[in-house]
Amino acid sequence: MTQYLYITDAYLKEINAKVLSVHEEGVILDQTIFYPQGGGQPSDRGYLEKDGQRFNLTGLKKDSENLYHQIEGDLSPGDEVKAVVDWDYRYKLMKHHTALHVLSAVVFRKYKAKVTGGTIYENKARLDFDLQEFNREIAQQVVDELNEELVKDHQIEIGFLRREEADKNPDLIRTKVNLLPKSISEIRTVKIGDVDFQADGGLHVKSTKEIGKVQLGKVENKGKGRKRITISVID
C-alpha cells in the first residue's frame, strides 16, 4: 500500500522510497510525493534515482488502488530509490491552483455562480462559470477583487471531513456537478482564510501572499453555462 505524502504536505521536494512492485503500467512505491493528474491539475514531473542513476518520470497512472510511476529504465522490487519532484514546475501549478480557488470564491460571492470546468497549466489557468451576464469588464472587476484577497496573506489549511458531515454543506462543492464518487467516505478540504472552503484533492501554497499578483488573460463565451476566465500569475 502506497502512502500518498502529497495529500498532507505539498512542499516535500524529495524523499527516500522503496519499490514495492513493478508492473506493465509502472512502478509502485511504498510512499510517494508525486501528484497524479486530477481535478484539472496536471501530473507532477520529476525522477527516481538509484545509486546515482536517474530514472526520469514519463507519466503517472492512478487507479482505485495504486499509483503507477512510469519511468525511463528498469527498477526491481526492493530497490531503494530517491524520489525528486520538479519543484519549479510543481510550485507554479500550486500557485495557479490556489489562485483559482480564490477566483471561484470571488465569483461565488458576487454572483452565486458555480464552476463548470477548469484547467491548470504551468503559466496560466482557467475556469468556466455558469454565468449569464459576462464580458471583459466584469472579468477584470473579478480579477481585481481576486488580487485584493491575495495580498491579505490568507493562510491555507488542509483538513478532512466524514462524507456525511460534508454532504450537509452544499457550498463545499463549487462545481456545477458533484464529481465526488459516492464510494469516498472521507472528504479532503481546503480552507483559504475566511475567503474559501471547498472539497478539493489538489495541491496548494501555504499562504495567498506567496502567489503575488495575477493578471487577466482571455475572456471567452463558450456557450450557455460556460463563461471562461483565464488568469496567469505574474512572477
Can you describe this structure?
- A hairpin with a 5-residue loop joins strand 14 and strand 15 (227-234).
- With 235 residues, the protein is of the alpha+beta class.
- Helix 1 packs across helix 2.
- 19% of the residues lie in helices and 38% in strands.
- The chain folds into two domains: 3-85, Elongation Factor Tu (Ef-tu), domain 3; 90-234, Threonyl-trna Synthetase, Chain A, domain 2 (Threonyl-tRNA Synthetase, Chain A, domain 2, 2-Layer Sandwich).
- The strands form four sheets. A six-stranded antiparallel beta sheet has the order 3-2-8-5-6-7, with no helix packed on it. A four-stranded antiparallel beta sheet has the order 9-10-15-14, with helices on one face.
Structure summary:
Helices cover 19% and strands 38% of the residues. The protein is of the alpha+beta class and 235 residues long.
Summarize the amount of helix as a percent range. 10-25%
CATH architecture of the largest domain: 2-Layer Sandwich
Beta strand % = 35-45%
Largest sheet: 6 strands, antiparallel
Can you tell me the residue ranges where pLDDT is under 50 for at least 5 consecutive residues?
none
Structural class: alpha+beta
Note the run of SSEs as H and E. EEEEEEEEHEEHEHEEEE
- CATH top level label of the largest domain: Alpha Beta
In terms of quaternary structure, what is this? single chain
CATH topology of the largest domain: Threonyl-tRNA Synthetase, Chain A, domain 2
Mean pLDDT across every amino acid position: 92
Count of helix runs: 3
Radius of gyration: 19 Å
Please identify which CATH superfamily of the largest domain we are dealing with.
Threonyl-trna Synthetase, Chain A, domain 2
Q: N-to-C terminal Cα separation, in Å?
A: 39 Å
The number of domains is 2
Shape: elongated
Q: How many β strands by DSSP? A: 15
Q: Describe the strand arrangement of the main beta sheet, using strand numbers.
A: 3-2-8-5-6-7
